[in-house]
Amino acid sequence: MLNLKAVTAGLATVAALISAPSAHADRVDDYVAAYGQDAICPVLDEYPTNAGILGIVNHLVDSEGFTSYSAGLVIAHSVILFCPKHVSVLRKFADTYNGTRSV
């Protein structure tokens, strides 16, 4: 099981990412372009919970070779670009694992 501190490190920047997605192309952007709309968002549609986000993080780290931080970027960018209705799910996740509250 993935260390929750590692997950927190990956998703602690969700609020900042919501307003400032990356402008450069890299592995995260390539993955988001290939799988964000057809894989990440459908999982969040079916599991719009902390467990759903953790499941995506675990897959990205264990099967795709991302760090937990990069997995957080993949999820955040996918949500921003393809399924912004799930921004509140990301904020709740960040609140849970950062011990703070989003506005």
From TrEMBL:
Residues 1-25 form the signal peptide. It comes from the Bacteria. Keywords: Signal. The keyword Signal applies. This is Bacteriophage protein.
